Amino acid sequence: MAIFPRIIGHRGSPRSAPENTLASFRRAAQDGARWVEFDAALTLDGRVVIFHDDELDRTSDGSGLLADATFEQLAALDAGGWFAPEFKGEMIPTLEEALELFANFNLGFNMELKTDKGREVDLAAAALPIVLDSWPSSLPTPLISSFSRQALAAAKDIAPQWPRGFLFDRLPEDWREAAKLLGAATLNANHKHLTRDQVLEIRGLGYGVMAYTVNEPARAETLFAWGVEAVFTDIPGEMIAAFAKLT
Length: 247
Known about the structure:
This protein is α/β, with parallel strands linked by helices. The protein is 36% helix and 18% strand. The protein has helices spanning 22-30, 71-75, 95-105, 120-134, 149-158, 175-182, 196-204, 217-226, 236-246; strands spanning 7-10, 35-42, 48-50, 108-113, 143-146, 164-168, 186-190, 208-212, 230-233.
């Protein structure tokens, strides 16, 4: 079973800097995070960028679907000013830019492949080779996750040596078959719907369990006691500090 730090910055450190930007990843590293999670998405012309939502409106000054925008159009957008004036001019990062920053800070990462319906395999085929070509073997092996079974199956074919995380909101009835078929290393659950019995069964079958998005130290402590291996959090600095006091 792969080993991960207990605290992973969800989209960087999004309470302190605009999510999924280089500023957010940098802040997470400065706050002591050893790993971050981010969302990989595909532009209309096939470039891989770091962005969560299907639509541009919430976290940039653009509008409409990201999948309908070219890379050139996205490069002209501001992805920081919505968060605070001091982040104005922060751009939507490319995957290459994020990887360079992660390497400079010795940050491990979980790359979530977004579920752009009909292009899940295209995204995996575009994103995985970029990481394979540039990520140093001396740094932590990435975790590749997705809600899309098609994307994970493609990741298994393209980078079979890297662990895969099967994402879900509620544990699906066929999770045992799916996890085996996808060669999953971890099952990554919405902590709100996760139970102790589920964690015990998943762990008993040899899979790791990770939980999102956990922003209360008391809840994280409960999850760890159940056997959850790692939590994704919007406040990595605060969470790391809280558990430093408990150990």
